[in-house]
Amino acid sequence: MYVLLLFCVLGVTSALENGLALTPPMGWLTWQRFRCITDCKRYPDECISEALIRRTADKMVSDGYLAAGYNYVGIDDCWMEKDRDKDGRLVADATRFPNGMKGIGDYLHSKGFKFFLYQDYGNKTCAGYPGVLGHEKIDVDSFVGWGVDYIKLDGCNVELSKMDTGYPEFGRMMNESGRPMVYSCSWPAYQDKPDYKSIREHCNLWRNTDDIQDSWASLTSIMDWFAERPELVEFAGPGHWNDPDMLLIGNYGLSVDQARVQMAVWSIMAAPLMMSVDLDTIKDEFKQILLNDRVIEIDQDEMGKQGMRVWNKSRCEIWSRELSNGYAVAFVSRRDDGAPYTVAAAFNDMRIPEQNYHVEELFDQEASRSFGTKDKTFKSRINPSGVKFYKFTPIKWNEINVTRITNRQ
Question: How far is the CA of 409 from the CAs of 397, 398, 403, in angstroms?
Fold first, then answer.
C-alpha cells in the first residue's frame, strides 16, 4: 500500500520528482575529517565504524545539532567489505559494523535522524571498494532494506560517456523503489562540459568540483570557481542544489574568522550544510558557528534562491542573496595585511533595492543598525580573511511612521 500511494503522488517518470530536499540538506558526513581510516585497533576513536556513527549521533542530539536542523548522518567511502557476498550483495565490514547497515539505519532512525550512505557509479569506489556498476538494482534493493534516506553516488572508475545515461537510470530505480531517498550526484564533478539541465532534472543535488581540502586555499578556490560561473545559479532551487562540498569548520585548517567565511558564503549559495568534524573534540567557538540559527535560517530560506558574488575589488568581495523576507549580504576579506579593512558599498554594489532596512550582523560582531535611502554607502570593516555577514530586512512604510511617532513622544 505504501509503495502504491507513493507512485500515485510522484508518478513513475524519467525525471527525479521525489519531493525531497526542498531546502538544502543538513547533517554530518565522515569523509573530510575521518577519510578512509579503517584501523580500529590503532585509531579506535577515528576509524569508520558503527561506534563512530553511534557516538556522533548521540552527540548531535545532546549538543543541539539535530534540533538546529542537522538531521542527516552519513557514512562516506570505506564502509564495505572488499567483495560482495555469494548473492552479489554489498556487505558492510563485519568487524567495524557488527550489526550491518540495517543496524545503523535503525539506530539513526530511533534517534530522529535520517540515514545518508555513500556509493559509487563505477565498478569500484574511489577507495577501491565495490561500486554499483552492473549491480544497480540489487544495490537499490539493499538500500531500501537498510532504511537509507540519502544516497551520494560518486563517479570514480567508470567511463565518463556512461554518466549521462547511467546517473538518470540509477535515479529512476531509486524513484521506483518505493522509498523516498535524496539523490546526490557527483556527475558534473567529473565532466568538462556538464549538462546541468539534465543534471537538475535527475538529481536533488550535485557535486560540481573536486573534494574540498582542509585549508583556506582550498576553500577560497571553490569560492572562486562558483563566483566565475554565475550561470549555475539558475539551476538551483527547492529540490535541486549546487553542492560546493562539506564544511571544514572545527577541523585543523581554518581560523575562526575563516570558518565564519565558509558558513556565510555556503549560506549565500544555498549550499548543503554537511559537517565533517569530530564533535567530541570540537572547540566551542567553532560549535557556535555551526549552531548559529540566524545563519542557518539564511541557508534554509524557503525561497531557495541561490546567491552569488556581486562585487570584487581591493581583495575584498561582496556575496549577496535574495531571501523571502529580505537580503543576505556577506562582506568577505581575502586580504592578509594584518589589519581590518573598510569597504564602502552602495545599494547597487550589494545588489539590493534602494529602500530603508534594518540591518543585523549575524555573527554578533557589531550592533544592529539602519541603512536607507538617505545613506550614500554602507560601510563594513572586515578582519583579514574574515567576514561580516548581514541580513537586510526591509522597513515598511507604517513601521517608519511608528518609529517617528515614538521618537516624538
Answer: 19, 17, 10
